[in-house]
Amino acid sequence: MADTRSILIVSSSSAEAEKLREAIGREFQLTVAESPEGLDQELEKCDLALLDYNSSPGSGLDFLAEILNKRYLPVLVLTPPDNPQCAVESIRIGAHNFVVKVGDYYQILRFTINEAINQFNERQRMKQTISSLKQRISELEERIASGERSAAPASSQETAVQSKDKTNIIQEIISRFKRGEVNLPSMPQINMKFQKLMNSGAGLQEIADLLKQDVAISSKLISASNSAIYRGTKDNTTLEQAIGRLGLRNTRQLIEVIGSRSMYTTTAKEYVALMERLWGHSVSCAYACQTVVEILKMKLQNDAFTLGLLHDIGKLVLLQIVGELKSKAQLAEDIGLTEIFSTLDAFHAQFGTILMKRWQFSGTYIQVAMYHDNLKDADAISKDLLVVHFSNLLVKSMGYHVQGDIPEINMDEVDSTRMLKLDHQLVANIKDKVQQHVVDLKQTLL
Description:
By secondary structure, the chain is mostly helical. The chain contains 18 helices and 5 strands. The longest helix is centred in the N-terminal third of the chain and has 45 residues, at about 105-150.
């Protein structure tokens, strides 16, 4: 489970503070401040301040201003039922929200506190994303300008035309970022809720109760548990039986695959097949990463399956943007797949990095998004990056790639194959296992 959230209660009434402690103390780590003394230190450690209007003669509003001057954080003000102006002034000064102290208001506090922290954190992440996007846009513009300056004047007319088309595409994407017209995708809610339950050590019944809220996922998990890979002596008919047979790891992987499937959509009909191939590449890479780790008995810093599933997420973002531009006739009619693939290859790492930061994934995921195609550009090569680099090329060599035709890949000559000490027979074994997983998955999701 994530670290317990720390709440600072600011109240001059020890009796009121004790009631609050009894109401929400089990879920949050609480600290009480009855005066401004020592407030700086306490504010640095808390995720939210809960300010009682009785904390000062000025209905706590002077205290509120002092808190916000010391640190920018979400503040909930507990306001009196007979003074609506207190609530109005609280919001005006900068409080995140207020809770009127009427009836058994303690019952809504847990929800209100969590919601306030979540919204505050989301706004902070958005600010970081915008800042990161601005930096990336500047970098992309510099690359475009540099590319235009260094372009060969007449070495190859066809290459020059393709370069120009690629520049036009990325320039339009940059313009959309600047205008705030690009929405980065969000992780599917079911994936996030499931992971939260897993982290909390929830039991099988709690997990089953969550998954039953999604009929599609429930039915597919039951189907998967009865497939050739997992089939037992008799067919499962309930979600609880399915999870019991699959195990939590395989259940999580299937939920990630099914949940991520919903992200691979586009408004341009001509790019639907590309999205399908991109999803197939990502899923096969995920199974390849997991298989490599199992065969070599490696321990990675992060989950191998998830690393493989998300490594090419930058291509998803770019393809969605390009598809939208195409459907709205905002791209030149003569721009074909060759130019699209060129754009994806040139810029997907940067966009994948932005999205990994947006989703607050660890540094390893960010490194994998940035360097899975270019090991030599990485400052340090982690085991995680090695596994993804190998798996990415392996599944391409098996036919799971986005482009129609790619050069033949000799896995024996790949740097990551050598660094992982994989011989020809091990590579063949990994291919067989990945193929089996992918075929079984396709049957499950039909």
